[in-house]
């Protein structure tokens, strides 16, 4: 008769604790969630939505959350676009529900007690491509870290984490390796996108697997990290009639038109005071819109974040001020309530206790190092390799004016292949574009602001669908 192994109670407890510890360590590799319905939307979703987490920092337990929406066309053949949000740790849900995704909020009076209603968006970019929406860096949206040290990232380290995310995601989704692959982003992710594409291209050249079918990238109203973005505000606001000739000429003379944050003289300081007083009269994200309360501002309390995965916490603690319904920020106001509903989190597969209060953007409460001083060199490196690139700007954006973007694109000194011309929708000009050698296109979206596809959804989709399919804009 075989001897029985006798296990003491303390040892059994150790085995149990080790077992659950092992499960916790693998939590980032949990199966994705297939979402067939969402709160606020009537009926089943008319597209395939998958959500999930990928661990990008094993030491600190940092996990990035994603939403993957398959193309509504031919997902086996259509391109795959990774979309990275901009802003101060802003969630990619802004792009998904307000800009380029297949759902949008219905703008109607809301009292904060019901589920904000959603409707199908006919100009979704998912009609032309599968889109992988990513909450990056750690701390944005539903991405989180078990150890608070995991939130201490910057431009470079967060980009490397996105590369880790892609390696793991493609390993789990090998069917998409053959699809044409693009990276996209807007605003501050204009620094991240070209750097990420350069890293991916170097891995391809080195034969590092999985090898993706990288074709190019696109950036909208992109920041570069250089003063060229800010320097273009003075000539732009002069050109659209917000500052007068006299002030423009005085700034050019006294400040040399540069570095508005550091006046070079008393005369320059006075000019900039007058400039800023006029600048404050407009909505910098769209000069034609009414100036409203910024509802995207949020704060993540690290004392709360230290509690994650140990206890449940209440959400929707600090709702933003309700803006008028004709403010662009009203949809952001609705998104705050929608994302902080328990039923929403359950539908999306959000890990319980991983996020206390969800905010659209976390402004400066978590450490972040803006250590990419300039993205222009990465744009030059990648375009010189022949990858397709689309740089676009809403022509009513005063935050990152198209004048500065157009200027650095020209500074790459690529020969012009297709001169500046209008591009059309329904027989009318929808913007203007110019195409350079090395597959580089710069385009404006007429009537668009800093988030041009949100302001002009049909024009934004038309531009994207033509470009991603290889057709002239």
UniProtKB/TrEMBL annotation:
The keyword Signal applies. Residues 1-30 form the signal peptide. GO terms for biological process: proteolysis; secondary metabolic process. SUPFAM superfamilies: alpha/beta-Hydrolases (SSF53474). Coiled coil: none annotated. Keywords: Glycoprotein, Signal, Zymogen. InterPro entries: AB_hydrolase_fold (IPR029058), Peptidase_S10 (IPR001563), Ser_caboxypep_his_AS (IPR033124). One of its GO terms (molecular function) is acyltransferase activity, transferring groups other than amino-acyl groups. It comes from the Eukaryota. Belongs to the peptidase S10 family. This is Uncharacterized protein. It comes from Lolium multiflorum.
């Amino acid at each position: 008769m075989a001897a029985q192994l006798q296990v003491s109670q303390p040892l059994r407890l150790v085995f149990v604790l080790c077992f659950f510890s092992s499960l916790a360590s693998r939590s980032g590799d949990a199966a994705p969630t297939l979402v067939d319905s969402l709160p606020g939307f009537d009926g089943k979703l008319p597209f395939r939505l998958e959500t999930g987490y990928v661990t990008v920092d094993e030491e600190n337990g940092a996990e990035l959350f994603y939403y993957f929406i398959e193309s509504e066309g031919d997902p086996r053949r259509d391109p795959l676009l990774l979309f990275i949000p901009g802003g101060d740790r802003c969630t990619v849900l802004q792009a998904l529900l307000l800009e380029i995704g297949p759902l949008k909020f219905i703008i109607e009076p809301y009292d904060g007690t019901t589920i904000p209603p959603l409707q199908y968006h006919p100009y979704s970019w998912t009609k032309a491509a599968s889109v992988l929406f990513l909450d990056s860096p750690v701390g944005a949206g539903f991405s989180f870290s078990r150890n608070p040290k995991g939130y201490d990232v910057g431009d470079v380290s967060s980009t490397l984490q996105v590369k880790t995310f892609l390696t793991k995601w493609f390993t789990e989704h090998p069917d998409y390796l053959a699809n044409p692959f693009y990276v996209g982003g807007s605003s501050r992710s204009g620094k991240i996108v070209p750097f990420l594409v350069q890293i991916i291209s170097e891995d391809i050249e080195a034969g590092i697997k999985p090898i993706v079918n990288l074709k190019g990238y696109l950036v909208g109203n992109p920041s570069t990290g250089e003063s060229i973005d800010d320097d273009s505000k003075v000539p732009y606001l002069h050109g659209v009639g917000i500052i007068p000739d006299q002030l423009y000429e005085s700034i050019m003379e006294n400040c040399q038109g540069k570095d508005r944050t550091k006046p070079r003289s008393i005369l320059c300081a006075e000019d900039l005071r007058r400039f800023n007083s006029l600048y404050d009269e407009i909505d910098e994200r769209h000069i034609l819109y009414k100036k409203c309360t910024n509802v995207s501002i949020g704060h993540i309390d690290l004392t709360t974040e230290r509690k994650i995965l140990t206890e449940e916490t209440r959400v929707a603690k600090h709702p933003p001020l309700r803006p008028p319904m004709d403010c662009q920020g009203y949809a952001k106001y609705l998104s705050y309530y929608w994302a902080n509903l328990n039923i929403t989190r359950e539908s999306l597969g959000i890990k319980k206790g991983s996020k206390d209060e969800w905010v659209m953007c976390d402004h400066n409460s978590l450490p972040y190092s803006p250590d990419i001083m300039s993205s222009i060199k990465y744009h030059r490196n990648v375009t010189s390799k022949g990858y397709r690139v689309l740089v676009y700007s809403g022509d009513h954006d005063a935050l990152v004016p198209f004048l500065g973007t157009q200027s650095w694109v020209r500074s790459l000194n690529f020969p012009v292949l297709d001169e500046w011309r209008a591009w059309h929708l329904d027989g009318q000009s929808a913007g203007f574009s110019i195409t350079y050698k090395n597959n580089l296109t710069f385009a404006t979206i007429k009537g668009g602001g800093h988030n041009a596809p949100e302001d002009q959804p049909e024009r934004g989709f038309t531009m994207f669908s033509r470009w991603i399919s290889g057709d002239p804009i």
